[in-house]
Design goal:
The complex is a heterodimer. Chain A starts with a strand and ends in an 8-residue tail after the last strand. Chain A has helices spanning 42-50, 92-102, 107-120, 136-148, 166-183, 194-200, 218-223, 228-233, 245-249; strands at residues 4-13, 16-26, 31-35, 57-62, 65-66, 77-80, 154-158, 186-191, 203-208, 211-216, 240-243, 254-257, 262-265, 271-280, 284-291, 298-303, 313-318, 324-326. By secondary structure, chain A is of the alpha+beta class. In chain A, strand 7, helix 5 and strand 8 (186-191) form a beta-alpha-beta unit. By secondary structure, chain B is mainly α. Chain B is built from 14 helices and no strands. Classes of the chains: A alpha+beta, B mainly alpha. Chains A and B meet through strand 6 and helix 2 of A and helix 8 and helix 9 of B.
Chain lengths: 334, 276
Amino acid sequence: MGRIVLERVEKRFGDVTVIPPLDLEIEDGEFVVFVGPSGCGKSTLLRLIAGLEDASGGAIRIDGEDATAVPPAKRGLAMVFQSYALYPHMTVRKNIGFPLRMAKLDKAERERRVEQAAAVLNLTEYLDRRPGQLSGGQRQRVAIGRAIVREPAAFLFDEPLSNLDAALRVGMRLEISELHERLKTTMVYVTHDQVEAMTMADKIVVLQAGRIEQVGSPLELYRAPANRFVAGFIGSPRMNFLEGAEAAKFDAHAIGLRPEHIAPSPSAGMWKGRVGVSEHLGSDTFFHVHMDGGAAPVTVRSGGEVDMHHGDTIYLTPEEGRIYRFDSQGLSIA
Amino acid sequence: MARAVTNRRKTVNTAAAWAIGLLIFFPVLWTVLTSFKTEAEAIADPPVFLFFNWTLENYAVVQERSDYMRYLWNSVIIAGCSTLVGVVVAIPAAWSMAFVPSRRTKDVLLWMLSTKMLPAVGVLYPIYLVFIELGLLDTRTGLVIVMMLINLPIIVWMLYTYFREIPGEILEAARMDGASLGNEIVYVLTPMAVPGIASTVLLNFILAWNEAFWTLNLTAAKAGPLTAFIASYSSPEGLFYAKLSAASTMAIAPILILGWFSQKQLVRGLTFGAVK
């Protein structure tokens, strides 16, 4: 079981409030991703759940029990750190077995569980190596191995993939998702990468300045962002925002258009502009368009190969029903 | 591009390094040479360097007149125990300063270091009285306590520096893995800091071995270490340069040999944190 409930949890460092009181419920077996720009308090929130930071107020309940004052070792949670945080003087076997040793399990049982975890993570042949002799991806798997042997109530991941190169990151992302499918254990995952959040999460918690901006499934956030911040943060490339006269036409302070919801045409459309930088990826083409009379360039995505280049005239038409409207406070207008 | 160093420059640098090295080493060398001379040759003018009648007589006399092994044993006990106790006391102290620093941590560290700037003679009188009161005068226990206390700031500082290099996340990982504070220090922090701890032990052993002020003032016949052994030969009457040199050689030999074999560790230890 791993149901985690935060009730009015807050964190202050001296006079600085990092996390104002917030409430959050994480259901058993859920894959929850905390996402937000750096410094938004997502890691602090994770560390509060882990017990590595003491809450300045409020309560943290794990499976109904008040864990607010319980030390990290006793919370029954396992954590995977950004830096892997492996014990460099121990072999992989000892690293993975360390939590079991601390739990005073007998040697045979420890061996059995370490072997099992190693098999799951394809680490069997590296068991007698030290972390220094492993690649980044292998080290990350050892860190995950160390977490799964404990059979914790929940896994906490603190930006676990940010030290890996792009190709490895995609692979590990899949591995962690598969692990979640197999173990069905609660996972709380912190990242600043909205692609990771969108691809892995059952539920995304978008944070800004310690506040929860919105909680929802990836597609809920994509389709119905609560405000301009969430709208801009979720989706890649990010949403275009137009203010002023264009927005007023839609009876809003600002309108948001996702690059994939704008149809480009060389001949006719609602808005006229000029192609700036164009990125031809083969599968997609991204145009950065300078609209006539517009300030910031608008990003437009077009499927496949499109034969338009720098300086060409381009017409843009927004997809109907996909225009997001925001008021002057930045909140979505329904 | 690496800075180009000409061969001539290299030769000059090497020669200069050797010259400075020899200059520093010369007094030790001269002491060792003198210890093999007769008393007459020891004060000969002009001094003789290598061509004299080599003799072991001084060593025989020194050994006959005083029990070298007893002094040696005292030195080993005092330097060894004070270092060991110091490290055991300093590890938790350095841990707390490195990993859970408070607003006052820097002040505490500086204050500890400032005690090293205090002239030792300033506290001799009170300590002497305390020692008389507690019956610690001329005991190895007393010296172990004093040595441990005077070297503690250095031990804490060195360990603090090493511990600061250990990523806090690893200790947090241990905490998440269910390690108690004790387990965290014993199974994770200490093994990771072994090179640093070894350097600290080595340096403090040497410092305690060479300490003369307190050993001379707080010991008489029973607990005197090798520093007291040398001092007993520096008599104002008569000419005992050769014997004094023999005693000195015997006193510094063990630590010199230890230093020789552990020089790599020492250099690494002393430059740790300075260069990464």
